């Protein structure tokens, strides 16, 4: 198990063949580029289809977010992806 601050979201996928180029392309993109948020969310959505690792508990998702916490879901990627 690795330790990362909770404000970082780490996504690891076993689908190297299909996702490697997409992820590498982010290195040259500026944060203000048009449509970058959508592109990143779509890449994350694809990564979530072939996850690596496992849930640590039933109370938290893979990013350490409380599953049933109603207070702050602006960063909850699973909820964001389910709502699209």
Short description:
With 84 residues, this protein is an all-alpha fold.
Can you describe what's shown?
This protein is mainly alpha-helical and 84 residues long. It has one domain. It is 35% helix and 0% strand. The chain has three helices and no strands. The radius of gyration is 14 Å and the shape is globular.
Features:
84 residues; mainly alpha
Topology overview:
Layout: H1 16-25, H2 36-48, H3 77-82
- Give the total of beta strands: 0
Low-confidence stretches: none
Largest sheet composition: none
Count of the separate structural domains: 1
Strand-pairing-aware structural class? mainly alpha
In N-to-C order, the SSE pattern is: HHH
Strand portion: under 5%
Shape verdict? globular
